[in-house]
Amino acid sequence: MLQNYVSEAFLERIPLYLNELEKYKNDYISSTTLANILNLGEVLVRKDLAKISQGGKPKIGYHVMDLMNDIKDYMGYNNKSKAIIVGMGRLGNALYHYSGFNKYNIHILEAFDILDDYKNINEIKDFCSEQDIDVGIITVPKDQAQNVCNLLLSQGIKAIWNFAPIRLNVPEDVIVQNENLADSLSILIKHKNDVVRK
Amino acid sequence: MLQNYVSEAFLERIPLYLNELEKYKNDYISSTTLANILNLGEVLVRKDLAKISQGGKPKIGYHVMDLMNDIKDYMGYNNKSKAIIVGMGRLGNALYHYSGFNKYNIHILEAFDILDDYKNINEIKDFCSEQDIDVGIITVPKDQAQNVCNLLLSQGIKAIWNFAPIRLNVPEDVIVQNENLADSLSILIKHKNDVVRK
DNA sequence: TATATATCGATATAGTTATACCGATATCAA
DNA sequence: TTGATATCGGTATAACTATATCGATATATA
């Protein structure tokens, strides 16, 4: 277990806070208010903020600008992150052109595929030797995903965002985040069916 | 709280089991074996399976075909689910053409947009009156997401899969699953940076 | 300046989720 | 047929996460 271990749920809440705070720049906000907006417990929010912020003032709350900066520092949004993406099908294309990553200073530097329209996959090696890549995004068909993954690992990439519906085999020090769209949607439908049946 | 409440984490494991079991059809498998393959605790897997299966045999484990059927029954994969998607940008397109939903008997029946290439958004009303739609998928820009959401809700849709980076305002009986790609990637990078720093 | 109060932040409690343990049982091997 | 054993499934325990409680404090108000 890591020293500064925080739970996944905690990490998922932080961007929510940041997005909401955007609306209250040049102002103060209390943990109670923020909690009510996001439908979270006030103590939960206060404890989350205590972990990453300089602290708030009694009766007033947190200085929003300062808090946003603390969040950005904590999450690393003030530092540029570099990604490459492999597999330029429809999904790869969508991600490659998605503008939402800019907000977090994440940049997809290059797109690879076997098609001529993109940098060829066998150029990954050269490209990675000149750049320090933080994340490899895998959007190839599932039968090629492990090969692509191995290629990325051989270039020293330690984090994989995997959209192929298979579990990748990686060493212990590599982090894989699987984004299985079909699984996610099916779980949503399961929830919905359970609620309807009460 | 619902009667048959199960945790989100539990629901996320079920498709993993199903995908893995695919490889062991016409065979038996023990919870221990399955757990080791997926890097989960054996007791956890056994308890999960106990919730949804007819049961396994001591010394042998579970009949894979039967177990798969139990999982499909439980998750509703044996019943057809219907979805529509609104917003035919790159991401909408990718989802609309994604073949992975078939495995779970989920069908995206129609795609809407303001562009002429697709059914116009103002036809959603007519379309929904003739079909019982389980899920609405929102892939429009964030400034239009709430409007589209309201439109879907007015047609009786009770589950929303939202890719727009905002929190939608919905009544209590509607389930929203947010799929914020930028947030997800930023969290992956945070994890990676924490690990590297040890 | 003195008092009331909203909020913070720390500690204690509750609730939820995962793990450990153990008797029962069906199968395999002798 | 008999004994050894792997696995199941239930109960007990531990770990983790969220909530409740409360004294301290900075601000606003009188």
Provide an overview of this structure.
2 copies of one chain form a homodimer. Chain A has 198 residues and is of the alpha/beta class. The first copy, chain A, has 2 domains: 68 residues, Arc Repressor Mutant, subunit A (Orthogonal Bundle), CATH 1.10.10.10; 104 residues, Rossmann fold (3-Layer(aba) Sandwich), CATH 3.40.50.720. Chain A is built from 8 helices and 8 strands; from the N terminus they run αβααβαβαββαβαββα. In chain A, the strands form 2 sheets. A 6-stranded parallel beta sheet of chain A has the order 5-4-3-6-7-8, with helices on both faces. A two-stranded antiparallel sheet of chain A has the order 1-2. In chain A, strand 3, helix 5 and strand 4 form a beta-alpha-beta unit. Chains A and B meet through helix 1, helix 5 and helix 8 of A and helix 1, helix 5 and helix 8 of B. Chain A binds a DNA duplex (30 and 30 nucleotides) through helix 3.
Describe the structure concisely for a colleague.
The structure is a homodimer of 198-residue chains. Chain A is built from eight helices and eight strands, in the order αβααβαβαββαβαββα.
> Total number of helical segments of chain A?
8
What is the straight-line distance between the termini of chain A? 39 Å
Across the major sheet of chain A, the strand order is 5-4-3-6-7-8
Of all chain pairs, the largest interface belongs to:
A-B, 58 and 60 residues
Q: What portion of residues of chain A is helical?
A: 40-55%
Describe the protein's topology.
The structure is a homodimer of 198-residue chains.
Chain A: H1 8-21, E1 28-29, H2 31-38, H3 42-52, E2 62-63, H4 64-75, E3 81-86, H5 90-97, E4 106-113, E5 119-120, H6 124-130, E6 135-138, H7 142-154, E7 159-162, E8 175-178, H8 181-197
Parallel strand pairs in A: 3-4, 3-6, 4-5, 6-7, 7-8
Antiparallel strand pairs in A: 1-2
Helix pairs in contact in A: 1-4, 2-3
Chain A binds a DNA duplex (30 and 30 nucleotides) through helix 3.
